[in-house]
Amino acid sequence: MSSLTTRMFRPRDRVRQKPPVIALLGDRLACLSELRDAPSVQDFANLHTVSGAHRGAVIGVDTTGYVTKKDLRQVLQDLEIQCAVLCGRLPHLRHIVVVVDGAADMPGNVLHRICESATNRIARRLDDAFKEVAITAILAELCDDPGLLADRVLARLRARELYAEAVTVQWRDIVSRPIAA
Predict the structure, then answer these.
(1) pTM of this prediction?
(2) Using CA atoms, how far apart are residues 102 and 26, in angstroms rounded to an integer?
(3) For residue 119, what are the contacts with CB-CB under 8 A and spacing of at least 6?
(4) Pairing of strands 134-139, 56-62
(5) Regarding predicted confidence, which is higher, 23 or 18?
(6) Given strand 95-101, what is the order of strands in its sheet?
(7) Is the dihedral of CA 19, 53, 21, 63 positive or negative?
(8) What is the dihedral of CA 88, 90, 93, 95, to 10 degrees?
(9) How far, CA to CA in Å, does 61 sit from each of 31, 56, 76?
(10) CB 3.0-4.6 Å disulfide test: which of 97, 114, 139, 150 passes with 34?
(11) Would you call 178 exposed, middle or buried from its count of C-beta atoms within 10 A (0-12, 13-18, 19+)?
(12) What is the mean pLDDT of residues 158-165?
């Protein structure tokens, strides 16, 4: 049998799976359940196990039980450190999406303002220390459709052009349309 014949009848090589391009870490939020199951997403137990060629990262932040602005700011300062570590561990990282969920005991506009400030601060820090990495924060406490949230997050992470380094949106803003820059 010639090598050509052998190749013709040889079973096809296994279909190569693309490696995950999105790292998922942080709190295991119910609203991220669909995203966790996406083939392009790799779930990590903690920050120190993250490695690879991921171009995007999603970090879940559970704000349940935070009663004071000071508590929330402390969590977001910790998040700033996590983002810097991620940039060091993932050299191809270009976008981080932070999904904030939980019933923080504060008005929505206060939560939005604090998260927006933190998002801008994180973007500046990463730009100064590493590279330009876009940061998107989604306040998802009213999310009742994890599938749609997964679609919105994946679309945002796959966008070739990001016109804003830091964006903060609420769930109700992205229910009927994609996350805009």
Answers:
(1) 0.86
(2) 14
(3) 98, 135, 136, 137, 166, 167, 168
(4) unpaired
(5) 23
(6) 41-43, 22-26, 56-62, 95-101, 134-139, 166-170
(7) positive
(8) -80
(9) 11, 16, 9
(10) 150
(11) exposed
(12) 74
User: What own/partner pairs with CB < 8 Å and gap ≥ 24 does 177-180 have?
Assistant: 178/152, 179/136, 179/138, 179/152, 179/155
- Angstrom distances, CA of residue 145 to CA of 21, 30, 64, 149: 23, 10, 19, 6
Residue type, 86: L
List the one residue out of 141, 131, 128, 133 whose CA is nearest residue 170: 141
C-alpha 173/C-alpha 181 separation (Å) is 12
Q: Tokens 């939980």, residue?
A: 102
